[in-house]
Amino acid sequence: LSLKFGDIGNLKGLVIRLLLTTSYYQLSVQNWFSLHRLQLLYNHSVQATFNATGIHAPATYSFHCEHVSSLQRYDALLIPSSANDLSQLWEVTFIDFQIQGFNVQEGRFAYARDCASFFSPAILMGLVMSLILLLVLAYALHMLIHLKSLDRHYECKASPAYFAQMKDNDMGDEKEPLRNSGNESYELRNQQFGKIYI
């Protein structure tokens, strides 16, 4: 596929040649086309050659991408074929690029397969944040369950059954008056709890 600029000033002799190939893939059970190479010709001589990577789609589809470029800031889908030729001197960028090599009907593009990845940085960041929130929620639920088990533990410890013996002793103790230097005092028979003076 050759794109000629016609009689547009300095671009009169410039031709962009796109070499498209088609192949059959058994895994997808259909033909796919791919952009194999891009060549820049000026005055019928090849000036630069770029290998294309990732530009492919089913043969019944078209391929669309916001930027197809040799620049790194646009993910560099066009790579110079050799470090020794003039490709390093050229910077090629197509904006809103769409191509369909085969099965073109009524001069219109078919449904486009976009180059945008399903896992863009924004989507990955959203997934990471969701994972962090789920971990925090799981930790909070774990702590709530742990607190409930502690409440049950303290309920057992605070049960009146532990103090039954002490209450029985309190009920069984009797006070008896003591006479000591004119002050009236009472002493519990069970010496385990000490003395009380009034």
TrEMBL record:
Its main location: membrane. Gene3D superfamilies: 2.40.160.110. One of its GO terms (molecular function) is ATPase activator activity. InterPro entries: Ac45_acc_su, VAS1/VOA1_TM, VAS1_LD. One of its GO terms (biological process) is regulation of cellular pH. It comes from the Eukaryota. It is found in: Membrane. Residues 117-154 form the V-type proton ATPase subunit S1/VOA1 transmembrane domain. It is a single-pass membrane protein. GO terms for cellular component: bounding membrane of organelle; cytoplasmic vesicle membrane; endomembrane system; proton-transporting V-type ATPase complex. Keywords: Membrane, Transmembrane, Transmembrane helix. The chain crosses the membrane at residues 118-141. Residues 1-102 form the V-type proton ATPase subunit S1 luminal domain. Belongs to the vacuolar ATPase subunit S1 family. This is VAS1L protein. The gene is Atp6ap1l.
